[in-house]
Amino acid sequence: MIRVAIVGAAGRMGRNLVEAIGRKKSDISVTVATVLADDACLDVDSGVLGSGVGNGIESVSDLSNHLDQFDLLIDFTEPEASLSHLAICQQHQKAMVIGTTGISAEQRQLIYEAGENIPIVFAPNMSVGVNLCFKLLEQAARVLGDDVDIEISEAHHRFKKDAPSGTALRMGEVVAGALGRDLQQVAVYGREGMGGDRDPATIGFSTVRAGDIVGDHTVTFASLGERVEITHKASSRMTFANGAVRAAIWLSEKSAGVYSMQDVLGLDKIRFEVK
């Protein structure tokens, strides 16, 4: 049995994670669910928070008091909280699935250092469809090369704090990498006022925050006369939760290291040839 701790169990993703694990028929279950100490959901059955059906695991506020009750932790919280949970997992040899976005380069380095001691899946987006898009974007960039202008647009709900989204940034990294560019050097985050001709090496980003949009991402490859668009639209957070659970099951048999969803899905083994 894979014993899983869900941190932030009262949040939007936390509830979906509890429900997704509850639906699985395999040997995985929620054994610890944490919420903030002042949350009204403290001591509430986590299954009720997820699907409305109790699972017998009441939410708690202090993860450190329940270290012997889980083997793997799933975290979709915020960067600072994720790093705190990472330190606990590293100290006590617990595997970790990290879906938190807004992670800085310095914070990412800490995750990779922890991966020398514990197994970690770290991905900006756990959706199977999004990770397939990463592979398609790599191929599209290699085929279309330097003959197109590249723009990335994303839209999320009004409550999302980081912008551009971690998924949009990862899409930019994939495309830039395929073209031999450094995203930090070529990214343009929004445009305003009068400007000169577009630098063909740049990769543009645009962001929408509105309503309850779960997550839309489009990468446009545009030339004079035609354009190619690769789009992913999420209609439910359950797609991210299902991916995270899939990652957790896969990770339970792995040794120390930092893995991506490309590894989980076996997409790293797929190779396209451009002739």
Describe what this molecule looks like in 3D:
With 275 residues, the protein is of the alpha/beta class. The chain folds into 2 domains: 2-122 and 237-269, 3-Layer(aba) Sandwich (Rossmann fold), CATH 3.40.50; 128-234, Dihydrodipicolinate Reductase, domain 2 (2-Layer Sandwich), CATH 3.30.360. Helix content is 34%, strand content 23%. The chain has helices spanning 12-23, 46-50, 79-91, 105-114, 128-144, 166-178, 183-186, 238-251, 261-265; strands at 2-7, 28-34, 72-75, 95-98, 119-122, 149-156, 187-189, 203-209, 215-223, 226-234, 257-259. The strands form 2 sheets. A 6-stranded parallel β-sheet has the order 2-1-3-4-5-11, sandwiched between helices. It has a 5-stranded mixed β-sheet with strand order 7-8-6-9-10. Helix 1 (12-23) packs across helix 8, helix 3 runs parallel beside helix 4 (105-114) and helix 5 runs parallel beside helix 6 (166-178). The longest helix has 17 residues, at 128-144. The radius of gyration is 20 Å and the shape is elongated.
